[in-house]
Amino acid sequence: MKKTFLLGLCILISSSLFAQEKFVTVDYTSDVTYGIKAGITFPRISGINNGLQSLPNLSSTDDQALTSFYVGAVVNIPLNTATSGHVLLQSGLSFVGKGGQSVVTNSNASLGDVTIKRTISYIELPINLLVSLKAGTGRVLIGAGPYLGLAFSGQKQISSSGAVAQQLIAAGLPSNGTTSLQIGSGGDINTIDFGIGLSLGYQLHNGLSINIGSDIGLTNIDSKANSGIITTNQLVSVGLGYSF
User: Fold this and answer.
1) Is beta strand 208-217 parallel, antiparallel or unpaired with respect to 232-243?
2) What is the pTM of this model?
3) Distance of CA 59 to the CA centre of its chain
4) Of all helices (H) and strands (E), which one includes residue 85?
């Protein structure tokens, strides 16, 4: 996966350099344009600790973000031809790394702590309404819209210490190590993730852009409906894009 991310960045940089040499200008007024994008994600799983609140000797639980990446392709379809601002329909497909980390701290330090790290891989289809506004020599890009994600793989890594680790072992549960997450009905993670995506970027005249974004998950990704636990994907991203 990391090799794919590095390849995507190399393509973006090479494409932007080529565009600068040829003085290519992206025209959103009438033409359908295409693009590639890649960057870093900072995902977390909101509510992942809801099922841990009643544990004895619990001092605190903390939902923390991980570091992953995204890479994909987009298509931009113009919806108007105004000179000052353009409205586009943007869609495409991307690989997106999501997940999160939970740190469980006990009030009695001698009992030890538990850290649970979950990484989930998604293929994501966004449908965004994008406004492109002229600013200086480039354009400001503001976007929002729904996304649909399909999970296809995942892992759970557990690290524990002290008496907690011994209790997990005694109960036949993993205290340390990595296992695969089961995707789909009856597994660990629901296949479908649906939510709202927000984006803000600045695009140069040659098509190269820098972007920040956020995914706000609206569906419960916990596939065990009877557990009473509601967890959602949350994500912040930063990256580069290139349209041609």
Assistant:
1) antiparallel
2) 0.83
3) 29
4) strand 85-106
